[in-house]
Amino acid sequence: MLRTIVLLLILANLGFFAWSHGYLRNAGLGPATVGEPQRLRQQIHPERLSVAATTVMPDAVPASAPSHPVPAASIPVALVSKQSPAASPDSSAPAAEASSSGGAKNSVCLQLGPYLTASSAVGAALRSAGFAPVERQRPLPPQWMVLMGPYPDTDTLKRKLGELQHLGLKDGSYAAIHDRPRYMPGVSLGVLSSEAAAHAQLAMVQSKGVSSAHVVQRNLGMQATTWVLAGLTKKQAANLHKLGEGALKGKAPEACPSR
């Protein structure tokens, strides 16, 4: 039974294949032909059809990519006049730079110092006069000093100075200390650049009868302060010189060193 069904399916497929491919058309069997002549016969009034040329609309062209540059003569004069002020800032930039560079060349840089103990007072005087000083500090180089003191009061200092005078020490070989607060009131018997030289100086004064002297490092922990006033006009520089040595604590303005 199964063989019969399979045989019938094979025969049916072969028959459909022959019918669909036109092998049975001589026997009057086959599908309807749908070629081009049949489609042309089915058209209604084909003579009324016409082929139009393809036209590109202006809107289809990107505005940012013109195919031809616009001649300068065709630009309206009013439009050019409105756009011309935009170039004025660029044209004025070189002039501004020239004026600023000229001002920098004409400015003056002055400095005051170095100060050891009066720097704060000088800075306050400069600011009260309308200046804006910049503080520059540097450590003092090492020095050694033969010292007597410090003493509890100035009366003791005066007595020690008198004793040194009676010992016959040369004038100028000793002096009261005025610029080293940590050793005031005291007496300096010599300032030396090395510790060995200071001890040699100590031995010399001891040989003359000085018994209470000793060697100390004179600039220990001290810094020198210089006040810098850059970018001054000539008028401001003249006003700085007018402050006088009293406000500037004995220092005169000097030109800043070139870098």
Question: What attributes characterize this protein structure?
Answer:
alpha+beta; four-stranded antiparallel sheet; rod-shaped
Compact description:
This protein is of the alpha+beta class and 259 residues long.
**How many E-type strands?**
8
Structural class: alpha+beta
Approximately how much helix is present in the residues? 25-40%
Gross morphology = rod-shaped
The DSSP helix count reads 9
**Uncertain parts:** 60-67, 72-101
Radius of gyration: 55 Å
Strand order of the largest sheet: 2-7-1-8
Arithmetic mean pLDDT: 79
Distance separating the two termini: 118 Å
Order of helices and strands: HHHHEHEEHEEHEEHHE
Beta-strand content: 15-25%
Largest sheet: 4 strands, antiparallel
Characterization of this structure:
By secondary structure, the chain is of the alpha+beta class. Helix content is 39%, strand content 17%. It contains nine helices and eight strands. The strands form two sheets. It has a four-stranded antiparallel beta sheet with strand order 2-7-1-8. A four-stranded antiparallel beta sheet has the order 4-5-3-6. It is rod-shaped. The chain starts with a helix and ends with a strand. The model is unreliable at 60-67 and 72-101 (pLDDT under 50).
